[in-house]
Amino acid sequence: MAKLATQTRAHLLTAPSSCTSAGVYEASNCNQYYECVYVMWWYELVLQTCSSGEAFDSSTGTCVTDSTCSS
C-alpha cells in the first residue's frame, strides 16, 4: 500500500473549488485524488495520480492496489 506524503484523514471529502487546510480529496477518476497543499501564503488544490494498478481509497487516504480501476 502506497502512502501519501501528506494526509489529513479527517478531510477526505469531494474536492472543493478551493481549500483552506491540508488534506486529500477524491477526484472523479478512481486513480486520482486532490491534495490541498500550502504554497507560499495560501493553500492550493493539486491533482495527484496513483501509480499504475492502484486506485485512491478515500477510507484510508492512500493509493491501494486495485485491478478494477482502469482510469
TrEMBL record:
Where does this protein have coiled-coil stretches?
Answer: none
Named from the GO MF annotations, one term is: chitin binding
Which SMART domains would you find in this protein's record?
ChtBD2
Recorded hits in InterPro entries, A to Z, give: Chitin-bd_dom, Chitin-bd_dom_sf
**Gene Ontology, cellular component aspect:** extracellular region
- Residues annotated as domain Chitin-binding type-2: 16-71
Extract the SUPFAM superfamilies matched here: Invertebrate chitin-binding proteins
- List the PROSITE patterns: CHIT_BIND_II
Q: Which domain of life is it from?
A: Eukaryota
Matches recorded under Pfam families: CBM_14 (PF01607)
This chain belongs to the protein called: Chitin-binding type-2 domain-containing protein
